[in-house]
Design brief:
The structure is a single chain. By secondary structure, the protein is mainly alpha-helical. The longest helix has 37 residues, at 302-338. Strands 1-2 form a two-stranded antiparallel ribbon. It has helices at residues 11-34, 39-65, 73-85, 91-103, 118-122, 139-142, 145-152, 154-173, 176-199, 220-225, 232-237, 253-263, 275-297, 302-338, 344-380, and strands at 70-71, 267-268. The protein contains 15 helices and 2 strands. It folds into 2 domains: 11-268, no CATH class; 275-380.
């Protein structure tokens, strides 16, 4: 059933965005010329920007919109307060629109579809009258007292919280004008555009590593400035994972924050996609890439190479399955040992046997991945005759 999309200008949001952008464009040059900020004010403003981005990413996005982990109520209150300072609306509305974005990506029902143009996905969608909030999409959040309270009092909380923070910063550095200009309005504008870049640039500039059919891309540069939200192709492929950057070298402060909270006992039930599932997805994408490349460049050896691709891909899938089954058996044995359904001597014997089998499977897997990468190199090196 096609969803009704309201038409008309969103006057409250539209006027607010236009007015504060115009005020900053006109006023900032005069401010920096006649009342330049001190180093302390700049440092505090950058720190506030980082914290409010953590609030949006770790709370609005990964906790509320995707339910990727659970956390204690005091920490939830702090992160929700930081997200409120970002001035991006209430959490129910934000999560509702984001869940629509994932469910209807790149279609007319996507609230900020990149198919309607870069600037539409970036910010012009905000100027359209918003859709009525459908309760069925955020029923879980309406049952959350903190989320419901913030939704009901978003205006007072947003402007009251920002005024309070600006006054506090102004008192700390002895510059109330600078605090309002830099620590509030400029910080708010930068935070807006960083979030909007995820909707625009992260759907058109980068690599489609895990799902090539999606417009969402992984962009390492954007990940640096969006506290880890730039690994967007992975996120759209596995949205329930509390991580966006899954490699050890991926810059993802939101992931690090959630992980640290879990180690402190303040967060739990962190959802992670099984590594074998990620590898299977990469294998599927690589296989399709190689087949497409053969269709363009490998006419003379196409049939032979295609057969090798299919056989090796099937073998890797089978080995991944064996590895997963062995890991599950090891976990089951450990549970049975803890529940004393099997004696320790038998458990140790079974565990040693399973671990020997696991080492053998992993050796097979390393060899098969090495063969796969070599085959990829052969296929991708083919040139047009």
């Amino acid at each position: 059933m096609e969803r009704a999309i309201p038409e008309g200008f969103n006057w409250p949001t539209g006027l607010f965005v236009i007015i504060y952008h115009a005020a900053l464009l006109i006023g900032l040059p005069f401010y920096f010329i006649y009342a330049p900020p001190g180093a302390a004010l700049i440092a505090i403003s950058v720190a506030l920007l980082f914290l409010t981005e953590i609030g949006i990413g770790a709370a609005y996005h990964r906790f509320y919109a995707h339910r990727a982990y659970k956390m204690s109520k005091p920490v939830e209150a702090v992160l929700l307060f930081l997200a409120t300072l970002a001035t991006q609306g209430d959490v129910l509305r934000w999560s509702y629109e984001h869940r629509l974005h994932h469910s209807f990506t790149d279609s007319d029902d996507d609230p900020y579809s990149i198919k309607k143009g870069f600037w539409y996905a970036h910010m012009l969608w905000l100027f359209e009258k918003g859709r009525p909030l459908e309760e069925r999409w955020v029923k879980d959040l309406q049952a959350n007292p903190l989320a419901r309270f913030q939704h009901n009092h978003i205006g007072v909380l947003t402007f009251g919280g920002n005024i309070l923070v600006a006054v506090l910063v102004g008192w700390m550095v002895g510059d109330f004008l600078g605090a309002f200009v830099l620590a509030w309005w400029t910080r708010m504008a930068v935070a807006h555009h960083l979030t909007w870049f995820v909707n625009s640039l992260c759907h058109c500039w980068g690599e489609r590593t895990f799902s090539k059919e999606l417009t969402a891309v992984d962009n390492y540069i954007l990940a640096l400035v969006t506290v880890g939200e730039g690994y967007h192709n992975y996120h759209h492929t596995f949205p329930s994972d509390y991580r966006n950057g899954v490699r050890w070298y991926h810059v993802d402060p939101n992931k690090w924050t959630i992980w640290l909270l879990s180690k402190l006992g303040l967060a739990r039930d962190l959802k992670r996609i099984n590594p074998d599932r990620i590898k299977r997805r990469l294998l599927i994408e690589d296989r399709q890439l190689l087949v497409d490349h053969l269709d363009h460049h490998g006419q003379t050896k196409g049939a032979e190479l295609r057969q090798r691709i299919e056989q090796l891909a099937a073998r890797i899938q089978e080995t991944l399955g064996r590895q997963g089954a062995l890991l599950e058996q090891i976990k089951r044995l450990e549970r049975e040992r803890q529940e004393r359904r099997i004696n320790r001597a038998a458990a140790r014997a079974h565990r040693r046997a399973h671990r020997r089998a696991l080492r053998s499977v992993r050796q097979d897997l390393r060899r098969e991945w090495r063969d796969w990468h070599q085959l990829c190199g052969v296929v991708l090196a083919l040139q047009t005759a």
